[in-house]
Amino acid sequence: MNIFHRREINNNSPLRRGLRGGFKGMLFLVLAFLTLAGFRTLPGFAAIQTDLGIQHDPTGGSGLVDPDNDGIVEIVNGGTGTNTAFGAITNLKGVYVVDTSGFSPTTLTGTTTITTLWSATIPGGALGANGSLRIYELWSFSNGTTTFRNMYTYFGGAEVAKVGMSSDSDQAMSLLRIVRNRGSETSQVVYNKYSWSSIGNAGSLPTTTAVDTRQDQVLSVAGELGDVSLSLTLEDVMVEIVKP
């Protein structure tokens, strides 16, 4: 009886309890390490990969199939065909916000020189042969004068918009400009560049350009004042790529 009593004490001694706890702790750490290293290191788990942040299982368990196990779900299988955001824009149909001024106003005053107020680079190939750029601009300006205040939009060095304001009462303007590739990455058509909007009637033919959108191109917005005492503020710009 005393022997059994001593054995029970030994099995529950602080030393033995510490050893059992240490073993469990080590096992937990090993499992955690293998999990972080990737399920493919553990038998019975399918490899999990990422395509633009979308998890998928090469075996099709998640509904997105990656038959060649290259980490990229092909477009026909519901993926993007790439593992980069730019690749997705190039490959997939949709509307993508390219850039924005972040609602940070930029004011032009004290000069009569045409001055760039905002610019962004449109990646080469992003439009494809039939894609478009949609450019939204919000302007404000000083009033009380009929002296001109001009607003310009340039794409790849080509002037795609030139709108003037000479009213002595208006104080704001919202502009929309759409630059369309028409069956070619080097041929564009734009609603008449002197019109205030890309929607409605115009008394002149559309503006055409020959910008090579296969290469990176700069999109910029500029202002011009007829007198140094005037002011012109670009309140905001947002640019979208439309892939049909």
What report would you give on this structure?
With 244 residues, the chain is an alpha+beta fold. The chain folds into two domains: 2-91, no CATH class; 94-243, Jelly Rolls, CATH 2.60.120. Helix content is 17%, strand content 36%. It has helices spanning 2-11, 14-37, 85-91, and strands at 49-51, 54-56, 94-100, 106-109, 115-122, 132-141, 149-155, 158-165, 172-181, 188-190, 207-209, 217-225, 231-243. The strands form three sheets. Strands 3, 4, 6, 9, 10, 11 and 13 form a seven-stranded antiparallel sheet that branches. The longest helix has 24 residues, at 14-37.
Task: Name its key features.
244 residues; alpha+beta; Jelly Rolls; 2 domains; 7-stranded antiparallel β-sheet; 4-stranded antiparallel β-sheet; 13 strands; 17% helix; disordered N terminus
Tell me the domain tally: 2
Give the distance, in angstroms, between the N- and C-terminal Cα atoms: 87 Å
Poorly predicted ranges: 1-9, 34-50
Q: Could you say which structural class the secondary elements and strand pairing correspond to?
A: alpha+beta
Q: How much helical structure, as a percent, in the residues?
A: 10-25%
Assess the beta-strand content as a share of residues.
Answer: 35-45%
State the CATH architecture of the largest domain.
Sandwich
What's the mean pLDDT score?
Answer: 77
CATH topology of the largest domain: Jelly Rolls
- Order of helices and strands, N to C? HHEEHEEEEEEEEEEE
